[in-house]
Amino acid sequence: LAKTTQPISMDSYEGQEVNITCSHNNIATNDYITWYQQFPSQGPRFIIQGYKTKVTNEVASLFIPADRKSSTLSLPRVSLSDTAVYYCLVGDDFGNEKLTFGTGTRLTIIP
Amino acid sequence: GAVVSQHPSRVICKSGTSVKIECRSLDFQATTMFWYRQFPKQSLMLMATSNEGSKATYEQGVEKDKFLINHASLTLSTLTVTSAHPEDSSFYICSAPNPGTGENEQFFGPGTRLTVL
Q: In this predicted structure, what is the pLDDT of residue B47?
């Protein structure tokens, strides 16, 4: 699995758009990029997954540049309930292989 | 999405006792499950891969005789922390892939918080 680097923490005010960037310089051709969200004392929850360009779902958007060496998770109009740790993972078979979690980004939303 | 449950959600035990944690896939079968441990303010660390019908595969540094894993059926894996000590206090999380849906993701349980006094 490719190593990922993301900011340790971020703060944002309610109602703002939050962008969390993840670096994965050694991403392989077959690798996908997946983001998980973890609330305190809960298991991680899948947010979004992509391979290239842009992916959007009801929760977030994922932007992936052409070189795929980084990706940006975008959370629109955050609320207090978005306070959580966000993990970026890179791999080619998330469904079956063991996952290696990096440090994650601790996002704190300020009222 | 698929649902993975864990039982108990939290447990407090005395030092030297053993604690069993269950991980169940509620609406799908899982031949493989993963066990993670997470200390406060830290990331998840993979402990072992649980395989139905065969021995678990442990990550480097994880004592297999201390953390016993049994994948009893296609929907149940158990982690037993033997002779628990305060340093084993942690948040234990399991996950399982759901090949039936074809989704390229794993589903995590809600976690079990173990406190060893």
A: 96
pLDDT at B49: 94
**Nearest residue on chain A to B47, alpha-carbon basis:** A98
Residues 6+ apart with CB under 8 A from A75: A17, A18, A19, A20, A59, A60, A82, A107
The nearest CA of chain A is from the CA of B17 a distance in Å of: 23
Q: In Å, how far is B97's CA from the nearest CA of chain A?
A: 5
What distance in Å separates residue B110's CA from the closest CA in chain A? Answer: 5
* Residues B3-59: tens digit of each pLDDT: 999 999 999 999 999 999 999 999 888 889 999 999 999 999 999 999 998 999 999
pLDDT-derived band of residue B102, with 50, 70 and 90 as boundaries? Answer: low
A-to-B residue pairs, Cβ atoms closer than 8 angstroms:
59
Cα separation of B3 and A100, whole Å?
21
Interface membership of A7 toward B (CB under 8 Å):
no
Q: How many CB atoms lie within 10 A of CB A16?
A: 13
Q: Which of A35, A38, A37 is nearest to A48 (CA)?
A: A35
Of B6, B34, B111, the CB nearest to A98: B34
For residue A37, the one-letter residue type is Q
pLDDT tens-place string over residues A27-80: 999 899 999 999 999 999 999 999 999 999 999 999 999 999 999 999 999 999
Question: B65 pLDDT exceeds 80?
Answer: yes
